[in-house]
Amino acid sequence: MGLLEDLQNRSGNTCELCGATENLQVYEVPPVSTGGVDGSLLGCSTCIGQIENPDTTDSNHWRCLNDSMWSEHDAVKVVAWRMLNRLKSEGWPQDLLDMMYLEDETLEWAKATGEGEEESEKIIHRDVNGNILENGDSVVLVKDLKVKGSSMVAKQGTAVRRISLDYENAEYIEGKVDGQQIVIITKYVKKL
What we know:
InterPro entries: PhnaA_N_proteobac (IPR013991), YjdM_C (IPR013988). By secondary structure, this protein is an alpha+beta fold.
């Protein structure tokens, strides 16, 4: 059985955040280290669109978190926590956050993307030209890079798609080059 089928069975074929039944898809909760059923949720296009693009966030849509924040699945709780933190200036999300409890490991995962931190505390990843890098961006290497621990050399001009950010160090990102997951220093990449 595939990941989509597992999530459909787990969720009863509904969005695990808002309960919608249309346009459902798998959402891997960043940073994508666990993946699979435990690191993913089944979400509707509305929820996923607003998670990935904060400018489109409709706070009334997220009142559904009043129910979904109590999910037994960590991936759902992590996204609920992040969205409540993003919206806490509205007032009502702060009340829900005050009631919510996450195990230490789950809370660490929830905080991994910097959601809930003040802007001055967030780690910002920038490419060689100073452009801000986000999870899922595509970059191109600006010089040949020797990959530590292997004989591989990542060539200048190689595109690295769907990067993930290291939330502890602003100079590190991760991506796949020739099928191998590697850490890349941001000063050697240019955002596409």
